[in-house]
Amino acid sequence: MSAGAAVQREEVSVLVNLPVEESWERLQDFSQAHCYVPKLTKTQIVSAQRHGEGAHRRVYSGKRYLEETITDWYPGSGFVIRLHKGDRAMPPFRSAEFEYTISCSGAMQTQVRLSMRIEMPGGAVGRFLAGKLIMPVVRQNLIQVAAGLKHFYETGEPANNGDRARLAGAVRVASAGS
């Protein structure tokens, strides 16, 4: 993110019925996004590194793909990924980051927090449009990702739209914009 930029952020959280160590094992497997993120059909690791800072993947929706690179790695608790296409940020953003964070919430539960931070081009107009049009969509997508992740982590089975709809009520919106 650019220094001094007006970054907008959404965050959701969900409780997963697994010990934090098992949740971390699943989370650090960077090849599984298509098992819980809506509309993704395939995940391909394109770097020699399979996890940790610098690991790079492509996530596909049909033949179209988006690139994701881990920029920050917090062993046992999460990581930050930059969303991009080549050297450019994921359109229409000036920059976009997605963060996964986990923490222990009891012997058999893990708190999973997902957040997305974006910076729009266009100054105040871009921020206004993002707040009115883009961030509500980001919030709904985060809810769907969190619900799908809960299903996948707890069952080991890829989530479908019915699973995400059934579990969406378990997801809490932690912040509404920034």
Automatic annotation (TrEMBL):
<protein>
    <submittedName>
        <fullName>SRPBCC family protein</fullName>
    </submittedName>
</protein>
<dbReference type="Pfam" id="PF10604">
    <property type="entry name" value="Polyketide_cyc2"/>
</dbReference>
<dbReference type="InterPro" id="IPR019587">
    <property type="entry name" value="Polyketide_cyclase/dehydratase"/>
</dbReference>
<dbReference type="InterPro" id="IPR023393">
    <property type="entry name" value="START-like_dom_sf"/>
</dbReference>
